[in-house]
Amino acid sequence: MNETLPERAAVATAPATLAMRGITKTYGGVAALSDVSVEIAAGEVHAILGENGAGKSTLMNVATGGTQPDAGTILVAGEDVGALSPRSAAAHGIAIVHQHPAVLPDLTVLENLEVALPASVLKGEGGRAASARRILERVGLDVDLRDRVELMTVAQRHLLEIAKAFAVEPRVLILDEPTAPLGDDAVRHFFSLVRDAVGRGTSVVYITHRMAEVRELADRVTVLRDGRTRGTALVADVTDDELLSLIVGRKLDSTFPPKLGAAADEAFGHDLELVGLSGPGFAGIDAKVRRGAIVGIAGVVGNGQTDLLRALAGLEQFDGEVRVGGTARSGRELLRRAAYMPSDRHGEGLAMSLSVRENAAISALKSFTAGPLLRRPREVETVGGSLRSLAVKAPSMDAPVGALSGGNQQKVVISRALLSDPVLLIADEPTQGVDVGARAEIYGILREASSRGIPVVVASSDTKELEGLCDQVLVMSRGQVVATLEGDDITEERMVSAAVGSKATAIATPEALRPEHPTGLRRFVQSDFAPSVLVAALIVVLGAFIAAQNGAFLSTFNLVTILTAATAVGFLALGQNIALLTGGIDLSVGPLAGFLVVVASFFVNDGKPVGTVLLGLGLMLLIAIAVGLVNGGLIRGARFTPIAATLALYIALGGFALLLRPEQGGYISQDFQSFVTMSFGPIPLFFIVLVVVAVLLELALRRTRWGWRLRAAGSDEVAARTVGVAVDRTVVLGYVATAALVFLSALMFMGQYGVGDPTQGSAFTLTSITAVVLGGTSLLGGRGTFIGPLLGALLLQQVLSATVFLGLGTVFQYYFQGALILVAAIVYTTGRIRRRRRRAAVE
Q1: Which of 301, 326, 719, 769 sits 20 to 30 Å CA-CA off 188?
Q2: C-alpha span between 702 and 784 (Å, rounded)
Q3: Distances, alpha carbon 378 to alpha carbons 162, 364, 420, 700, 761, in Å
Q4: Are 523 and 146 in contact (CB under 8 A)?
Q5: Residue 509: DSSP 8-state
Q6: Is the dihedral of CA 630, 632, 638, 643 positive or negative?
Q7: Which SS3 state, helix, strand or coil, does residue 679 take?
Q8: What is the torsional sign of CA 449, 451, 453, 454?
Q9: Is 551 exposed, middle or buried (0-12, 13-18, 19+ CB in 10 A)?
Q10: Please, are residues 46 and 207 in contact by the beta-carbon 8 Å criterion?
Q11: What integer best gives the mean pLDDT of the chain?
Q12: In a 3-state reduction of DSSP, which class is residue 264?
């Protein structure tokens, strides 16, 4: 196979929809791509093959604007488009389905579509919701638009990613391992969508590790190895052996290691027996596995395979018995002693922020300790030996695991499993997204583990994989084993026939263990607004109790006092909320409010001309905006952590305030104070302003691109960038908006305290964070409301007032605030953990 084939020359005479010529990209002196050229003709499916780390994803990131090449040219329909960004690539009609879906877990299905797609795509008949449903129906995805994406399975998230790509009717569609988590029916439907798109003239770039898919879909194929183009040819003119030889740079003698054989050595130390095993999603599983055998779990995706594996790993409750080596193992024992390799390598299999060494060692730390201390030399030696034995390719053991290719990441997961000295090894889709060379190595590793006496259970949607690897296969349908295959009976045809021809009825699943599909009240309880309702109810109950004890609590004077104080804290909380929604925090809000009051104390005084007063107010606003820009610039430009950046401003603003006014001074105009504290009966004017601002911000958060992008940046920054969100700009403008709301809070402090005090405001940073946490905003970003922080501020002031009217000491103010924060943290965190467990259960 070479570049001079006459068939290729004939294709190349037509104008290429996408042409990439001489593309070169290096990272730290290491070439990821070296002078790579490829052309995609109109109306063709062009497969790109290569091992993990060959440069395929880097090349596609260049094509979609996610990566800027060091050299080379990109042409779309013959036009040199220069350097692309995700947004400009989309404008040129280039769409991509990523191997790891660029979805935002904290946003709903509809909001994910709204963030990623042009507004025009969702303006069809019936409005946004109807258009969104049609987009999902096209790819066969049946989910509620109001559900959070975090509750979706891996396969559903992939379908959502596919739906986004097809919705824009792209000129060039790039598909990176699109079928990896999909079942047979979904794959067939997806292939029909690809063929329809090609029939309409769309050019498709198809990246896969499955040779059968290349044969079924592709017209031409290009092979990359070590960042270089190794050849391009018509698929019909090249054999699988030739392709494999080019992909791995060597001839593979066999993809699969030899099977156990009929006369197995009975001296191995473990066996596996399942007796009447039932749990969420499966029932009545009986199996007896020979020593040294690998048992496969087959069936159409979603028929209980993953549920069974999670139970074997001790991650789900089960009835019945699991016997390993003749010993019955409880769920708790399996959780400690079984090793589980999940299908979602990034989400569940690896801690992406940790190093290769740390990920491999984390399950075996006890074996590296001497007393309470970790013996680092022993850890390094043992982990290094394990990684070398598995041929893990990494710059070093201390390199971030995220820098490794998919195949090497999977080997790290296997290394961790084997280092834990498991009694049972469980692998769910162990070669998903892994190239052919790494697949053969992983198969060999699993066979070696089984030969050492560790029972190995493998679930895979690739029946050819199960056919070549396993000594015994359990075919599941509707949560039940409908066929047990051994020896020569383990064929793709027998597995598919057993799964498709099964007449098994659906099992009854206890409601408490059934995968979650929230409706009605349950969906509301899981929504962002549930904490706000809880806080509002607490305000009403607490208010009624205090009023019952002391009728003066509901006096006009006291209500005005509470609402005025809540207004000052409320504006701070709204600002803090914006920072937290982006995944950050702003420790400078309190000192900034105090500093602005100090500045105002030189301008907003009795007897000063109106122009001077307006100048002072304008200067306050400019200072606030400047502080927001500095905070945002330090975080996104200088790459400070949000805590470090805003703590620096916290200290600096406190110092500037003391420089301007070493002591209290500069009394605020009485007229201005009267204006700020004006009220209509028991309702202060500025409290009404606070409510209006909160409602407007809430509407913007839910119904505008600003709000979607703000939450997208905090939900998953990488995914947000991938779908075209300008994360840096979004975060910087978010901190500017935070500072602008602090300016409104400073106006309230001017009216309340009436004097420039250099120490005023610092304590309100913690108060603002408390109000936001009470309101239900996630400290991890991406999730929350603006109504919640407003109610949180009101509750805090009500608690402070309660200590007076109930005759309690000042110390109880801190007890009550601490108790509220603790309860809020427990309730909201527990709820989120439960949702994650339910999500894991359906994956």
Answers
A1: 719
A2: 11
A3: 46, 12, 15, 55, 52
A4: yes
A5: -
A6: positive
A7: strand
A8: positive
A9: exposed
A10: no
A11: 84
A12: coil
Structure confidence at residue 3 (pLDDT): 40
pLDDT of residue 211: 78
Of the given ranges (264-268, 618-622, 775-779, 788-792), which has the lowest mean pLDDT?
Answer: 264-268
Q: Please give the Cα distance from 398 to 356 (Å, whole number).
A: 6
Count the Cβ atoms, other than its own, within 10 Å of residue 212. 11
The label of the residue with tokens 């940073």 reads 765
Q: Which domains does the chain have, with CATH numbers?
A: 6-93+170-248 (3.40.50.300), 103-162 (no CATH), 272-351+401-502 (3.40.50.300), 528-841 (1.10.3470)
Cα distances (Å, whole numbers) of residue 477 to 268, 280, 310: 32, 14, 17
Nearest to 173 by CA among 186, 163, 183, 158: 163
Report whether pLDDT(609) > 80: yes
Identify the bridge partners of residue 204 per DSSP, sorted by sequence position: 45, 173
Amino acid at 329: R
Confidence of residue 643 (pLDDT cuts 50, 70, 90): very high
Q: What global pTM score does this model have?
A: 0.73
Nearest to residue 270, comparing CAs of 292, 288, 286?
292
Determine the average pLDDT of the residues in 334-338.
87
Dist CA 358 CA 355 (whole Å):
5
pLDDT digits (tens, 9 = 90+) for 500-509: 555 555 454 4
